[in-house]
Description:
Largest sheet: 5 strands, antiparallel
Shape: globular
Number of domains: 2
Helix content: 25-40%
Radius of gyration: 19 Å
Number of helices: 9
Structural class: alpha+beta
Oligomer: single chain
Strand order of the largest sheet: 1-9-6-7-5
Amino acid sequence: MLSAPQQLELELVDPGRWPRRPYCADDLSAGLRIRSFKQAITKPYIQANPPHLRVWSIYDVDRAGGALAWEDAGLPPPSWAAANRENAHAHLVWGLTAPVLVDSPDMRQAPLRYLCGVEAAFRERLQADQGYSGLITKNPAHPLWRTLRGPQLAYELGELAEWVDLPKHLPKRKPEEIGLGRNVTVFDWLRQHAYRHIRHYKGDVRNFVLWQSHLNAKTLERNGDLLTPMDGRFAPVGSFLCAARAGPVVRQARTEGGLCTGGCCPQGAVLCFLGGTGGGRRHAAENSALTNLPKHTN
C-alpha cells in the first residue's frame, strides 16, 4: 500500500457511498454531532456507513503497525487504513461493492448472517477490537491520520469470504448478537418491549421523560446480555430513540391515543408516543437514499 496524497482520490470520499448527514466529531470525548457531508468530511472522526446499510466493513486494530495488520493476517489489502501518527493504531476498512441491509423491515437473515461470519473471521485474523461497533471511524481524508490507500475501492462479499475459513466463524448464537448486529438485536428487542409497555405511559406528554428513562434502563440491561456488549459511551438509548424517530419506514403512522394502530412502522411504539416527527422521517429518507448502489437483500 502506498501513502495517499493529502487530497484523496475522489472515489474514496464519493458522497454516494457515505451518509448524507453523518455523525462526526473533532474530539470523541466532546460527543458526536450530525452535520452535512461537506462539513463532516472536514472532521477527524466520521460515520462511514449510512443508516441501515453496511457499505464499509471497518476494524479497529489497537496496536503499533495496525495499518499493516492485514498483511500479517493473510487478508486482501483494505480499501484504506487510517493510522494514528503517534502510536500507529489504525482503522482498516474494506469497501463492499453491494452494501448489505442490516437494519430494516426489508432485511433478510441470509446476507446478514453471511456478513457477520465474514466480519467475525476478519476480526479474529486481524486481532481487532471485539467491542468496536464500527459507527465512527478515523476520517481517511483528514490530515490528523496517516492514510494508506489500497489498490481496490470495494470487494464482493463473496470475494472477501474466500480469504477466510468461513464455516468456523458462522455464529452459533443468533448472528445479530455479534459484531454489527448488536445494534439490530437491541433495537428489535427494545421495540417489542415498547409495544407491550407503552400503555402504562400514554395519555400525558409529560410521561415521555419517564418513558425514556425506562427504555434507557432496559436498553442497558439487554446490552449487558450480549456476548460482547456495546460500548455505552455514546448513550445507547439516545441512538435507539433517534433511530425510532427516523426509522427506515417513512409511511405516516396511524395513531390513536398515542399508540400506533396501523402496525406500519417497526419503530411504532416509540415514534407514535408523540405521533411521529416529519423531520425525523425526512432525515432518514435523506440518509438512506443510496439509489446508485446495489444492495444485498436476498
